[in-house]
Structures are given as C-alpha cells and as structure tokens.
Specification:
By secondary structure, this protein is of the alpha+beta class. The protein has a single domain, classed as Roll (SH3 type barrels), CATH 2.30.30. It is 35% helix and 26% strand. Strands 4-3-2-1-5-6 form a 6-stranded antiparallel sheet, covered by helices on one side. The longest helix is centred in the C-terminal third of the chain and has 16 residues. The protein is globular.
C-alpha cells in the first residue's frame, strides 16, 4: 500500500504533486479531450431522460470545462470558467482559461454549468455536492 502525502506537503509541491509551472490551460488539453470522449460515450446510447440523469448525477467532472453560475458562499467565483483539475471533499480545483491561474471553488453552495456538444448542462448545488462526494469516495478507495 502506498502512503499518501499530507495536504500540506501536496500544497507545497503545487497542484497536488504537479508543479505550478506545469499547471496551465494547455497542459490540461489531453484531459479535456478525454473528458469529452468520456461524456459523449456516457450519453450516446441513452434516451433523453437517462442522458440528462447521467450528465447531472453520474458524470465525473475531472477534465470538464465548467463555469460557476452562482455561489451562495463565494460570490467572487461567479462567472469564472476553467477546467476541473482536482476534486476534494470540499473544493474543486479549477485551472482558468485566461491567465493559466488556479482557483478553488467551494463545493457547498456552488451552481455550475458546462457544455457538451449542443447541450448546456446546469448543475444545482446539490448535484455538485453529490458528484464531489462520489469523486472523493472513488479516490479514497
């Protein structure tokens, strides 16, 4: 079994082991393309209601380009857009499209939206919290 580094050590190293100089919009291009293929595969053979459920309740957000549409606890995050690089139990780590800067979005109170082909998917705060809990649970296994 491999030991995990503490949160403090991971923050000092940069983006959870990835050097800050390597954390840029262009560096996550492969992840964005992989997420798009994954999301298309998730909905391609489903009817409209099952596809909607998959896109709001089952999808993994790592690599998804999201926009914060509203936030009850972090109003300065509203309108920001970027690719989800890491999901913790309480925050999304997002690499911004402009300026290649990282910012953290508190999961509690966040409403997000993302685009997949011709669909605009809006995630209510409870959907974001559910997806984050699922991602954190998978990572800890």
């Amino acid at each position: 079994m491999r030991a995990r580094a503490s949160g403090t050590v991971m923050r000092k190293r940069g983006m959870f082991g990835l050097k800050k100089s390597r954390c840029s919009w262009s560096a996550f291009g492969t992840l964005r393309r992989a997420w798009t293929r994954y999301a298309r595969g998730l909905v391609e053979s489903r009817d409209a209601s099952a596809a909607r459920r998959a896109l709001t309740k089952e999808i993994d957000l790592h690599g998804c380009v999201v926009k914060v549409t509203s936030h009850a606890r972090q109003p300065d995050a509203v309108g920001r857009e970027g690719v989800v690089a890491f999901v913790s139990a309480r925050r999304l780590w997002v690499c911004a499209r402009a300026g290649d800067d990282f910012y953290k979005v508190l999961i509690d109170g966040a409403a997000l939206e993302y685009a997949l082909d011709d669909r605009i998917v809006r995630l209510a705060p409870e959907d974001v919290a559910r997806l984050a809990r699922g991602a954190a649970r998978c990572r800890d296994v």
